[in-house]
């Protein structure tokens, strides 16, 4: 799924997601839990403002973001 993502440069100048749109709903990135950086793609495991966890992939050459995984919030 392609995404519209707001991003900023991170500590080392690499792009990091800050928020993204799911349809018309804005979801803020609360924390980057993990990241995998490679030449062609960067992956970010993020905790989001909706309580869910996502893995987002950024393709540097095409500047496209995709959602690769969605994990619903924990239910009590």
**Terminal Cα span:** 29 Å
Total number of helical segments?
0
> Which residue ranges are poorly predicted, with pLDDT under 50 across at least 5 consecutive positions?
none
- Categorize the overall geometry: globular
Descriptive overview:
- There is one protein chain.
- The chain has one domain.
- Strand 5 (53-59) and strand 6 form a beta hairpin.
- The protein has strands at residues 2-9, 15-22, 25-37, 41-48, 53-59, 64-71.
- Strands 1-2-3-4-5-6 form a six-stranded antiparallel β-barrel.
- The N and C termini lie far apart (29 Å).
- It contains no helices and six strands.
- It is mostly beta strands.
Please tag this protein with its features.
globular; 6 strands; 0% helix; 68% strand; 76 residues; six-stranded antiparallel barrel
Question: Summary?
Answer:
With about 80 residues, the protein is mostly beta strands. It has no helices and six strands.
Furnish the topology, listing elements before pairings:
Blueprint: E1 2-9, E2 15-22, E3 25-37, E4 41-48, E5 53-59, E6 64-71
Antiparallel strand pairs: 1-2, 1-6, 2-3, 3-4, 4-5, 5-6
